[in-house]
Amino acid sequence: QPVGVVSAISGQTRLYVQVDGFSGHAGTVPMDQRQDTIAASAEMIYGIEQRCKDFPLSRENMLVCTVGEFNVFPGASNVIPGFSNFSVDIRCKDDAMREEVVDLIQVGLRDIAEKRRVACEIET
């Protein structure tokens, strides 16, 4: 008995994102002076999710975006994180759509980095 039928092969793009901010003591750095890489990364990851969910015809073209890895340094409860990195896996059966989404995601990541005063490097 067949379990399923393959109707399409999805193309894949993987991004590796590095976010550089500035570490500091949690009790002494005012909120408006922080360059917190977890806060910046969280906004970036939420933006990736929204971009993929809201993109026209995303469901029909099986567009999916996944952040499967996330690391933060130094990783202490009383230290504002100064570095984080994460991976993004983007898949879609329409290559042109996937490439457009990848471009839009990269622009969005850089916009968030600028707004939050952190550096963002994206590798493909």
List keywords for this structure.
single chain; 124 residues; 2 helices; elongated
Give your account of this protein's structure.
- The strands form two sheets. This protein has a four-stranded antiparallel beta sheet, with helices on one face. Strands 2-4 form a two-stranded antiparallel sheet.
- The protein has helices spanning 37-54, 95-116, and strands at 11-20, 24-25, 64-73, 79-80, 83-92, 119-123.
- It has 124 residues and is α+β, with helices and mostly antiparallel strands.
- The protein starts with 10 loop residues before the first strand and ends with a strand.
- 23% of the residues are buried.
Rg, Å, rounded: 17 Å
Poorly predicted runs of 5 or more residues: none
User: What form results from the Cα inertia axes?
Assistant: elongated
Number of helices, where a helix is a run of at least 4 consecutive DSSP H or I residues:
2
Task: Report the end-to-end length measured between terminal Cα atoms.
Answer: 40 Å
**Helix and strand run:** EEHEEEHE
Helix/strand-derived category reads alpha+beta
As a percent range, the share of helical residues equals 25-40%
Largest sheet, described in full? 4 strands, antiparallel
Please sum up the structure shown.
With 124 residues, the protein is of the alpha+beta class. The chain is built from 2 helices and 6 strands, in the order E-E-H-E-E-E-H-E. A 4-stranded antiparallel β-sheet has the order 3-5-1-6, with helices on one face.
